[in-house]
Amino acid sequence: MTAVFINGWGTAGTAPAIPQHLQRELRRADPFIISSVLAADAALSRAELGDGDKKNCAIVFGSAFGPMETNFAVLDQVTGGEQTSPTLFSHSVFNGATGYISRIFGLEAAALTLTDFTFPFFQALQNALLLLKEERVRLCLIMQTETSSRLLQHAREQLAGSQVPEWGLGSAALLLSRDKNDTGLPSVNTVSMKTRSAPVNQHLRGADDATVTNRGPLQAALQFLSDIEKQEETTLLHSFFSPFADVEIETGR
Amino acid sequence: MTEKTIAITGTGLICAAGNNRQETWETLAKGEVRNHIPEPAFFAPHPPSPLFSVRAEDVPGCCDTDFFPGLRGDKTPPINRTTALLMRATEEACRQASLSPTLLQKRRVGVVVGTTVGCTFHNESYYLNWKQGIAQDISPVTTYLSSNLAETLQQLLMVNGPRAVITSACASGTDAIGLGNNWLKNGLCDLVIAGGSDEISRIACHGFSSLMLFSQSNCRPFDRKRTGLNLGEGAAVLVLERKEKATARGVRPQGYLLGYGTASDAFHPTAPHPEGRGLQRAITDALQQAEVSLARIAYINAHGTGTKANDLAETTALFQLGLDSSATPVISTKGATGHTLGAAGAIEAILTLQTLREGKTGGTIGCREMDDALPLPVLAEGCRKKISGTIGLSQSLAFGGSNSALVLEASS
C-alpha cells in the first residue's frame, strides 16, 4: 500500500475548554461533539490547510460506544412521556459529530462514521488509507471519540465485582495527506488488523497493566498518537492487542 | 467491463413489502402499501405516524434456520431484531450466490453493514430499572455488546476478514456497499457481504417526530401535498466479488457495481443543502469511477423520503447536473418500504438492480400529483415506463449532510 503522510494530529481530554473561535458553533453541542470538534481543530490547525484543501478533505470517524449519554438523555424524554428535543435527538445520532466537523471546517469530501467495539480508530485508519489511495481525496481526518457512560460503568463494576476507574471522555484525531509535508511527522505505510472471537463482556475490560492510563476504548488511539510524535526511527512497527484483535501499523520517516 | 469488475452474485431483502427480494418486487409492482398505525402510547406525546414493519411471522428466530454454523453450540451470541433481519437477508443472498458457510469459510470474507438503530442501547425496561437502582441481571448489556452487526455476522458465519459497521445515518447502506467495493478493489478480501439493517425504534420515531419530519398519513415522495416521511424496518444484503472469481465459481452475476461516490454538504446538522451540493459531487464521483455519463443512466432510484427539503434538494441536484428525466425515470420506493434508515441504501440498490433486470417501473408509490415546484419531473404513481438501458443510479442523503451514490448495471 502506498504510504500517506501525517499532516497533523490532536486530542481532547476529559473537560475540554472551548476556544473563542468555536464558542458560537458549539453553543448547543453535547460533550461528545465538543470533544470531537476540539480534537479535529487541533489536528487541522497543525496542518494549516487552505480552503481548497478542505474541500478535498474526507473524514472517517470511529467510535466504540458513540454518544451514549446523549442517547440516554433522549431515552429519558421518551420514557418520561416528554416531547423529544430535536437538538438532543440529532446529537444522539452516531454521525452527529461527523456532521458538525464537516460543517464547521468546510470538509466536503467523504464523511463516514463507523462503529466497532474493537479498535475503531485503526479501522477508520485502514479505510482512510483506501480512500487516499483511490486519489479521489487529498486529505483524510481520522478520528475517535468516546464518552463516559454511567450505565456502562455500572455494568463494568458488576462484572469486575469491584470499583474500576472510569474511562472518561476524550477524542483522538489524525490528519493524513497524499502529499509530503514539512511537519516532521512520520508517514503511515501499512495497517493490518486480524480479528478473532472472544466473550463479548470483554469489550468492557480495561487495560491489563494498571500503570497504563486507562482510557478504555480510546487508549490505543492515544498511545499511537503519542508514539508517532516521538518517533525517530526510520521504520517503526506499532502493535496493539486485545482479546478481539491484533493490529500492526508501520510508520516511517 | 473487465474481469476485475465487481460482480453482484447474490441479493437478499426483507422489509414490510416482502419476506424476500421477489415478494418485495411483486408488492411494489402491484402498488401495495403495507403499513400500520401503532398504538398511541408508542408515539405519545407526539402524534402517530404510519410505520412499515416486517410481519411478526417473518422475523426469523434463531431456530428457524440451519444456515449459520455459529448458531450451534453454547457460544451463540444473543440475537436482537436488527440482527435477525440481517440474518434473513444474508441467507437469501448467500444461497443465491451458491455460497454455503463451508465455502465461505475457505475464503477471506469481508462483512460491512450499515445501521443507525442497530448500534444503540435502547432497552427501555433495563434502563428504567437501572435508573431506579433496581438490581437486575446485566444480560441486556451483554446483548448490546453483541449488537455489532458485522462482528456478529462474522461469528455466525464463522468467517474471517475485514469488517465494518457504517453509522452514517440514512446513507449507511449505500456506504457499506461502497466500502465493500473499495476492499475488493484493494485485495483486502475475496468476497464481501455488504448491506444494511435497521429495526423500528421508539427513539428514532420520537426523534424524527420532534424534527417535524414525519407524515401522519402515508408518505408521498415528490407529491405536491407531501408532508414528510414514514419510518420502516428491514434488511438487505448483496454478495460482491470480482467478476473473474464469480466466473471461476460458475456463478452468473445478477449485475455489477460500477461506481461509488460519497461527499458531504458541510451545510446543516439535519437538513440537506438546498441545491444538493454534496449529492451532485457524490453522483459525479460515482459516474467517474464507473466511466459512465449521466446520459447513459437508464433509471434513478432517488432517496425520495417525502419531506419538503429532501425531495426539493434531490431534484435540484439532478436538474443542475443536467439530467433529462423524460428519458431517465426518477422514482422513489419509500412509499412501499418506508424509510428504513441504515437499510435503505442497500434495499434500494437491490430494487434498482431488479428494476433494470425487469426492464420496467411502475412509478413512485404515493406520488399522485407531482409537485410543480420541483425543477425536474419524476415518475408518478401508476405511470408505467419501460427502462431502456441496463445501467442505473441509486442515491442516498443522510442526516449530518452525507450523500452517497452507486452506479449499478444489470446483467444482460
List the helices and strands and how they pair.
The complex is a heterodimer of chains A (253) and B (412).
Chain A: E1 4-12, H1 31-47, H2 51-55, E2 57-63, H3 68-79, H4 86-92, H5 96-105, E3 111-115, H6 120-133, E4 139-146, H7 150-160, E5 170-177, E6 187-195, H8 219-230, E7 235-242, E8 245-252
Parallel strand pairs in A: 2-3, 2-4
Antiparallel strand pairs in A: 1-5, 1-6, 4-5, 6-8, 7-8
Helix pairs in contact in A: 1-5, 3-4
Chain B: E1 6-15, H1 21-30, H2 40-43, E2 51-52, H3 81-96, H4 101-105, E3 109-114, H5 124-131, H6 139-145, H7 149-157, E4 163-166, H8 172-185, E5 191-198, H9 202-210, E6 231-232, E7 234-242, H10 243-249, E8 255-264, H11 277-290, E9 299-301, H12 308-320, E10 330-331, H13 334-337, H14 344-358, E11 360-361, E12 385-386, E13 391-397, E14 402-410
Parallel strand pairs in B: 2-6, 3-4, 3-5, 9-10, 9-13
Antiparallel strand pairs in B: 1-7, 1-8, 5-7, 8-14, 11-12, 13-14
- Report low-confidence residues of chain A grouped into runs of 5 or more: none
Order the strands across the largest sheet of chain A as they lie in space.
Answer: 3-2-4-5-1-6-8-7
Number of helices of chain A: 8
Number of strands of chain A: 8
N-C termini distance of chain A: 16 Å
What does the radius of gyration of chain B come to? 20 Å
Spatial extent as radius of gyration of chain A: 18 Å
What is the average of the pLDDT values of chain A? 91
Q: Helix/strand-derived class of chain B?
A: alpha/beta
Strand content of chain B: 15-25%
N-to-C SSE string of chain A, H for helix and E for strand: EHHEHHHEHEHEEHEE
Number of β-strand runs of chain B: 14
Strand fraction of chain A: 15-25%
**How does the helix and strand content of chain A classify structurally?**
alpha+beta
Describe the largest sheet of chain B: 10 strands, mixed
The biggest beta sheet of chain A is recorded as: 8 strands, mixed
Globally, the shape of chain A reads: globular
Largest interface here, residues on each chain? A-B, 66 and 68 residues
- Subunit arrangement of the protein: heterodimer
What would the average pLDDT of chain B be, to the nearest integer? Answer: 94
